[in-house]
Design goal:
With 412 residues, this protein is mainly α. Helix content is 63%, strand content 2%.
């Protein structure tokens, strides 16, 4: 059962600033870095699994998602350790194991109720000799890419810092080790379609949500996407054993606000205040997505990735929150608002099942966390109070399987 302490742990990355010993043109949070990393990992996974069976592709994808969450939770505890110090600790197996056992002891009260997920996390961090596994290589490459992207942002502002050249050379050297991964060379070229896509993903950290309602922390669209994806992962695990459904729901949550890069974050009351405005915005988003992202990816040989992103965003069905599956090559929509089990019979990798209302609930829940935490931190407004009340009411109307009554009671 999902409880408050897990959700607050997921959200806590919004408070953690990265590169906080350097001059930064904007604050860079851990949760944004993790979102960027997982978007890049999705692209690398798609390319690396091109020749795999649907079942093998799903298994690899689940390992990547879980590994990303395992790393994220770990980094929430060690965030104050500078990377060079952490890597020095990692070189000494005994010291690294001591640190890891300390980290796991801190996380155990919040994560051990998740059962098999917690046991796999322990194994992930304590097992030796797994660095060459494909899932770990993809995650490490994505981690280095997202960190390097941030570094390139701050480097010009730290011309006086004698660490800059060393950090730059370290990134270039370490990324070279992953040149053999499918798609990696195109990812590293900012003039290639895949490189431009990864760059656009990073820019979503500059778009702050709820601009009419100041908050602490002021979460970005990129950070919000990661919270929704993570909530979708844990809730889907609660209601199904379908690995494909878990995988698709995570990545659909991760991509769900990607089009806001092209329109900014327009709050629902504004969209709904003018008849037809939501439709106009949606049409513009779809056109710009095809012009700037999906079309260039297809022309550059990444048609599979382009189609996957379009599926996650529900472009053919008109909404990212439309439940669906694939049958005989066609996307079939289903109504899961009252019953999430409707997709149970389509759980196989070939059907590519994807929930709709579950993702919407996770979107509301992430927004509720944003409003609740700001109010708890002493930064409130009528907008935030109204939003928190509205979102709570919407969540209370979720199907019983989500057990929202007990969860929301924890936030009182």
């Amino acid at each position: 059962m999902i409880r408050k302490n897990l959700l607050q742990l997921l959200f806590s990355g919004a408070y953690l600033w990265r590169w906080n010993d350097k001059l930064r043109p904007t604050e860079l949070s851990e949760i944004e870095k993790q979102a960027h990393k997982m978007l890049v990992a999705c692209a690398l996974w798609n390319e690396a699994s091109a020749e795999m069976t649907p079942s093998q592709r799903t298994d690899l994808g689940i390992k990547i998602i879980e590994g990303g969450l395992f790393d994220y939770f770990y980094r929430l505890i060690i965030t104050d350790i500078k990377p060079p110090v952490f890597y020095k600790i990692k070189e000494n197996r005994a010291h690294y194991e001591q640190l890891t056992r300390y980290v796991l002891s801190r996380l155990e009260p919040m994560l051990s109720p998740l059962g098999d997920f917690w046991e796999r996390m322990r194994g992930w961090h304590l097992r030796e000799g797994a660095e060459r596994d494909l899932d770990r290589r993809i995650l490490t490459a994505a981690h280095l890419f997202a960190s390097r992207w941030e570094f390139q942002l701050i480097r010009p502002h730290n011309f006086f810092d004698d660490e800059m050249d060393f950090i730059h050379n370290s990134f270039e050297r370490e990324l070279e080790a992953f040149a053999d991964l499918p798609g990696m060379s195109a990812l590293m070229d900012k003039n290639e379609a895949l490189g431009r896509f990864a760059n656009l993903c990073g820019q979503l950290r500059f778009q702050i949500r709820w601009t009419q309602a100041p908050r602490i922390p002021a979460t970005s669209v990129l950070g919000h996407m990661f919270i929704v994806a993570s909530c979708a992962f844990f809730y889907t695990r609660e209601i199904t054993d379908s690995k494909t459904r878990i995988l698709n729901n995570f990545f659909s949550g991760l991509f769900h606000d990607f089009p806001e890069l092209l329109t900014r974050d327009i709050i629902s009351p504004v969209k709904q205040s003018i008849s037809g405005l939501a439709g106009i915005i949606k049409k513009y988003e779809d056109d710009e997505l095809n012009r700037r992202v999906l079309g260039p990816l297809k022309r550059a040989g990444f048609a599979s990735l382009s189609d996957r992103i379009a599926y996650y965003l529900g472009l053919k069905l008109g909404s990212e929150f439309q439940a669906c599956y694939i049958k005989d090559g066609e996307i079939v929509a289903v109504d899961d608002r009252a019953d999430c089990s409707i997709l149970d019979k389509y759980g196989s990798p070939e059907c590519e099942p994807k929930d709709g209302f579950l993702l919407k609930i996770c979107d509301w829940l992430a927004a509720f966390l944003e409003a609740h935490n700001s109010i708890r931190n002493g930064v409130s407004s009528s907008h935030l109070q109204e939003a928190r009340s509205r979102l709570k009411g919407q969540l209370e109307g979720a199907p019983e399987i989500f057990k929202m009554e007990g969860l929301l009671a924890d936030f009182e």
